[in-house]
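Record type: monomer structure entry
Structure origin: computed from sequence
Chain ID: A
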Amino acid sequence: MADTLEFELVSPEKLVLSAPVEMVVVPGKEGDFGVLPGHAPMMSTIRMGVIATYEGGKIDKRIFVAGGFAEVTQERCTVLAEEAVALDAIDRTEADARVTDARQAMTSAIDDAERETAEARLVIAEGLLAAIQDFAGH
């Protein structure tokens, strides 16, 4: 059995990450699940949360995802995320600004469709801010 599996994280905008990893932990709808080389094939919806990739027996990367789908095979884990942001690529100030912008968009919405879009942006922005706070200093 190989000692790594291929991990791909794709958002609507781009391929966020494609790399061999020792393990990846994904925030599934039913709870977090770890994927190692040789994992049984499966598909899962994912909830908003943080994906952790492992290298050298420890967490290498943490990436916030705003939900999506995961497909696992024995050699690969592919995540299609609604949005993905590496936690080391954004700081608390940027996350606070996203929350503020989303709240302002809700306030200035002129119809239900705009309000629903702004609400969805706010939920994601607050989730990202919580992830940054939870993993600060890790």
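Annotation 1: The radius of gyration is 16 Å.
Annotation 2: The domain at 5-87 is CATH 2.60.15.10 (ATP Synthase; domain 1).
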